[in-house]
Specification:
The structure is a single chain. The protein is α/β, with parallel strands linked by helices. It has nine helices and 15 strands. The longest helix is centred in the middle third of the chain and has 19 residues.
């Protein structure tokens, strides 16, 4: 019988416990993520297992995604008007020796195509030696800007899949991603395993994430989506098809959920890439070791003669008004106070 995670809340700390997995995940008041191995008492930064089953798999995920405790909510901008194509900047490349983008491909997401040969076999669009860089689970302070800086130094563009909650906590970082010309899709509201949810719960996770990220971005997003932990089922894939949202899987997993050393992380990615010859690479922009690995990874891609392909969408992703309203209402700060007049509380006595 499968053992499910449970949540413990105590004061300013939140713990997500994966029963039977041998690991307790803790989140402190500053949003720092640590995990304590129950059998050894070792402390390490929390991780996300994104190893992908085939699309017909119904096996439970090997790990449970943990999301940090929320900082104060940001002001909510008005819902943006839908445009024909996401607004994507075209940054000028000032590095004549940069890796750069070899070509940009535009995806017509009508009917919800699946991309990434790990799970979807219909669209093998990459040529030998071509790679697509993708980053999940941001936006996050320090690490996401570090990834952006490394990509900018090599004039490279990528696809980002933010989490809705993280976007509401760090909207300025999200806007940095957009301003740098990267494509931005979605990755649910709170990184739940959707295959274990009821259809309505799963739909709510998808749509709340779309509305939250769109509101924080201040503009329409690309109709790109990646399932948390790559867990899906036929009903959820069909729902994306109804919404004309492309489902992104992967070809190469960096495994930065378990490899916490930048050098080893780069070596692992390059080894897998040499075997496959091309592919969509999965990394996470909230891990410090992943951010530290990006400059060396780009350098090795250039040295190895690999070409970076940027993916953008033909159309934008419309939100659903009821979810927009619910997210906006939920994130508005409470306007109540029991404060006494200031003269009753603070007095000059000397």
């Amino acid at each position: 019988m499968r053992k499910l995670p449970f949540l413990i809340v105590a004061g300013s700390f939140t713990a997500v416990v994966a029963a039977g997995a041998g690991a307790w995940h803790f989140f402190g008041p500053a949003g720092a993520q640590t995990s304590a191995k129950a059998d050894k008492g070792e402390l390490t930064t929390a991780s996300i297992d994104t190893r992908a089953p085939k699309s017909n798999s119904t096996e439970p995920p090997p790990r449970v995604q943990a999301v940090a405790a929320a900082p104060a909510a940001a002001p909510i901008p008005a819902a943006p008007a839908v445009e024909k194509r996401p607004t994507i900047a075209k940054p000028v490349c000032n590095n004549p020796n940069a890796l750069g983008v070899s070509r940009t491909v535009q995806i017509d997401t009508t009917g919800g195509p699946g991309l990434g040969m790990s799970q979807y076999r219909d669209y093998d669009f990459l040529q030998p030696g071509e790679v697509v860089l993708t980053f999940d689970d941001g936006p996050w302070p320090v690490t996401t800007p570090a990834v952006l800086a490394a990509l900018s130094a090599q004039c490279v563009q990528a696809v980002f899949f933010p989490i809705g909650k993280h976007a509401t906590w760090h909207p300025a970082v999200l806007k940095q991603v957009i301003a740098a010309g990267h494509s931005v899709g979605t990755h649910t509201w709170s990184h739940q395993n959707l295959a274990s949810k009821t259809p309505q719960e799963a739909k709510d996770e998808i749509e709340r994430g779309i509305s939250a990220i769109t509101l924080m971005a201040g503009q329409p997003l690309s109709p790109f989506f990646r399932f948390p932990q790559l867990r899906q089922n036929a009903e959820l894939k069909a729902y994306l098809a109804e919404r004309n949202i492309a489902a992104f899987s992967i070809d190469i997993d960096s495994e930065d959920f378990r490899i916490h050393n930048a050098g080893k992380l780069v070596a692992s990615v390059m080894d897998k890439l040499k075997k496959k010859g091309k592919g969509i690479i999965l990394m996470h922009d909230l891990h410090k070791w992943s951010a530290a690995a990006v400059p060396d990874l780009l350098a090795q891609l250039k040295a190895g003669g690999y070409k970076v392909v940027h993916i953008r969408a033909k159309d934008t992703l419309p939100t659903i008004a009821s979810y927009d309203a619910a997210i906006a209402a939920e994130l508005q700060p409470v306007k109540t106070s029991n404060a006494r007049p200031i003269s009753n509380v603070i007095q000059t006595v000397d």
